[in-house]
Design goal:
By secondary structure, the protein is an all-alpha fold. The chain is built from 4 helices and no strands. It is globular.
């Protein structure tokens, strides 16, 4: 089922959709990493939860 952009809620704000380029772009700009890093984090964590991805990227890119 297609994402209905008119219906936004808490569940939608807590996720990063790998199939939506604008969500990856926003998240990469927010975290200061590349799009490739965001997609890699999605694959490595097997999760699309924003907090999980933020924690993963902070550990990987702030060494």
């Amino acid at each position: 089922m297609a994402d209905n952009k008119a219906e936004k809620g808490k569940a939608d704000r807590n996720k990063v959709s790998a199939s939506e380029n604008y969500e990856i772009q926003y998240f990469k700009d927010k975290m200061g990493v590349s799009s490739q890093a965001v997609v890699g984090a999605l694959r490595a964590t097997c999760s699309n939860d924003r907090k999980t991805l933020e924690e993963y990227l902070k550990k990987r890119h702030n060494k």
